[in-house]
């Protein structure tokens, strides 16, 4: 333990169960000396195990629907009261696609579901940042990280509307990162993580086969949830105080590898 976050205060969204990246981030932040508030939508909290995480990390829970500005206002107001001051870091780990859940092909998307996915998974990020900025809830030099996936840059047919939504999420990070950085020196980045064996990831059709494929392509193999949490901690820390408006790939080198010897061998194309 290096105490990279000693004395820092944060808000962590999206911790559903022990497999989630947000859960791992909370554990790591606690190990590194941070205090934080946990939050999730009420329905997700009923499905998850967030109370156990709160007990383990000595944290309080403030339920909030991230699509609701009033509830986000309450979240940041209560968080500052609970933690005794402004926030130093925020994790946005929120993603949901009804179209994926219902296995609707990209070319036949249900647009009501599509708009719901945008609101929950991308627009919520803008709302969260806008509320925090209006309340002046984040300290100068603070750090905000949102989790994304490289389907925002390349086509992955099984990712359907979430690919478009993640592209919007990354754009919000850049655009809001400029304004928040200029006015308050708050940095905003997205982390593009490897396919990860989380509860959400496992719900995507063909995930297991793609996980194995990506693992064979990446020279370091797939990055797991725990190593992603480590990376997020560095982004919350003062060690990365000049990094902002970036989409940062944390994928074992997958995004920079065109072809893999291992995959070619499995296809019988290389002796």
TrEMBL record:
Q: What is its EC number?
A: 1.3.1.9
Top enzyme category: oxidoreductase
Pfam families under this entry? adh_short_C2
Q: Does the keyword Glycoprotein apply?
A: no
User: Catalysed reaction(s)?
Assistant: a 2,3-saturated acyl-[ACP] + NAD(+) = a (2E)-enoyl-[ACP] + NADH + H(+)
Identify the keywords attached in UniProt to this record, alphabetized.
Fatty acid biosynthesis, Fatty acid metabolism, Lipid biosynthesis, Lipid metabolism, NAD, Oxidoreductase
What is the protein name for this chain?
Enoyl-[acyl-carrier-protein] reductase [NADH]
